Amino acid sequence: MAEVVAQSLSQELLALLQDERFAMLSTVNRQSGGPYVSAISWVYASNVSTICFAVNSKSVIVENIQHNSHVVLNVFARGSVYSISGHAHVKAERMENVPLKLTLIEVMIEEVRDVMFYGSRIAVEPHFEKTYDARAAEKLDNQVMEALKNA
Fold first, then answer.
1. Which residues, including other chains, have CB under 8 Å from residue 9's CB and lie 6 or more apart?
2. Above 90 in pLDDT, residue 18?
3. pTM
4. Sequence-separated (6 or more) residues with CB below 8 Å from residue 87
5. Where are the beta strands (DSSP E) in the chain?
6. pLDDT the model gives residue 107
């Protein structure tokens, strides 16, 4: 099912975006004006109209958003791909209670679109694993997600 459009997240997408999840973030490249795409996982939907995510404070993503607030977050869920577009801003230059220097970005959702091509569905959603110390990764993930939930 393609091109289903809404102005906010469905309750089902809201629930799916309450845990760490693989997503593709597109920003406008500050230097070229073209697309800049990154994979991120520290994503949290605060409500049906707001998504927060955390990125390294030195990331080009932060500079891009400060220069042009338009963003698109692509999420694989429920057998489809959702394109969530909106305007982003830096909510906190440095997140508290997190050992890394992370910036908190908040996105005000303007449109949610099912962009899966007609007559198909995602059979297996993308899966990722952390390649460093599993306990350290779990501890850090929990700290970041907790900070996102309390933002």
1. 17, 45, 48, 49, 51, 84, 109, 112
2. yes
3. 0.91
4. 69, 70, 71, 107, 108, 110
5. 4-6, 23-28, 35-40, 43-47, 50-56, 70-77, 80-92, 102-114
6. 98
Q: How many degrees, rounded to 5, is the angle at CA 27 between CA 83 and CA 63?
A: 150
Give the tokens for residue 112.
């949610």
Length of the chain: 151
Domain that holds residue 42: 4-149
Whichever domain contains 80, its CATH number is 2.30.110.10
Q: What is the pLDDT of residue 1?
A: 44
**Structural domains of the chain, count:** 1
Query: Got the DSSP string for 38-54?
Result: EEE--EEEEETTEEEEE
Structure tokens at 18: 């309450």
Helix (H, G, I), strand (E, B) or coil at 129: coil
